[in-house]
Amino acid sequence: MASSGKQRVLSGMRPTGQLHLGHYHGVLKNWIELQKEYECFFFVADWHALTTEYEDPTIIEKSVWDMVIDWLAVGVNPGAAKLFIQSRVPEHAELHLLLSMSTPLSWLERVPSYKDQQEKLTNKDLTTYGFLGYPLLQTADIIIYKAGHVPVGEDQVAHVELAREVVRRFNNLYGKEPDFEDKVEAALKKMGKKNAKLYKNLRKSYQEQGDIQSLEKAKALLESQQNISIGDRERLSGFLDGLGKAIFPEPQALLTPASKLLGLDGQKMSKSYGNTISLRENPAVVEEKLRTMQTDPARVRKTDPGEPSKCPVWSFHQVYTDESTREWVVDGCTNARIGCIDCKKPLIDAVLKEQSPIRERAEEYMNDPETVRGIIADGCEAARDVARETLEEVRDAMHLVYR
Ligand code: TRP
Ligand code: SF4
User: Fold this and answer.
1) Which of 283, 178, 188 is nearest to 228 (CA)?
2) For the domain 280-366, what is the CATH superfamily, name and number?
3) Which ligand lies nearest the alpha carbon of 254?
4) What mean pLDDT, rounded, does the chain reach?
């Protein structure tokens, strides 16, 4: 399969039902930007949902489709990104199993979310094999596509860190290609004569004189090559270090800044706190939720001055209104010149305006489930092509090909 020179980005979301404004302003807008620049893989992590929902898996199915419809409705573009469902690419499970052989238990036990979630979700028994393996399955998700960048929130950074450790160990154990030298020569040819010569010279002065500047220059030269596949890129990079080809590149977390938007009660917006406005919330409900949303508790009466920084409504202004409106809010609130209902009015308008096209597009997809299934079927197939290819390399490297 021809591989574009673009770097790969991969991210997944557990299906947790309809998405809310916090997801949109945090994660999804970021995905929509990334899909313009990178080769993106976005998937529904349904097996990850199962690690906590195994007692009642029936709720996962509807959440999967609701979530996909939300992605499409906000503008995640199946023409630009591959959209798929984890369990439809069973190679993730095979790679997870193979990685599990060489992953020390202690690496998994010390991932902070393991104990945190067990303590937090006390209504569930999470002392399971599957739950311990959660971040290793996530490692398989990432590296099976050789993704270089993984957009995630703060809470997931430790998982990407584990993936990096697992990759290093795997490459050390199995990362020697028998015909490495020949493949490097072939890859060099693709750079063109002049660049290939330059690359070799830079390598020489790095390896023989330890010249770091030459190393940096060689890396930049490699980076700038458009016509080189990910595999060849890894070989040429290994050729520089004198290490041989790494089977997997080390993925990097691309930290998604948390959305400024708070929940209706001033805590983080989250379904488990019941303080959300969903992406496709009915307009009358949006209005009602915002009208009754918490404000600065110091403002009991309109004549009491308030402080926007102590008010969750202010977080909505930071996302939804322009500077002059915000100046009006600060002045009106701190000098008790406006009421909280006045303050909320432009937000109600802005949220409804934002949601109207989203709701419309979601409606179209809901009325046309065949199209949605088709999009996912195509995405699964494209993802699976890549995953199959990686697994072949992995089985090869681990000497598991006895045919
Ligand atoms: N664990 C992630 C979350 O809860 C979801 C996820 C699964 C993921 N596999 C992934 C995210 C791979 C990034 C890459 O949000
Ligand atoms: Fe909050 Fe606006 Fe009321 Fe001030 S005027 S307390 S910012 S809702």
Assistant:
1) 188
2) Tyrosyl-Transfer RNA Synthetase (1.10.240.10)
3) 1
4) 94
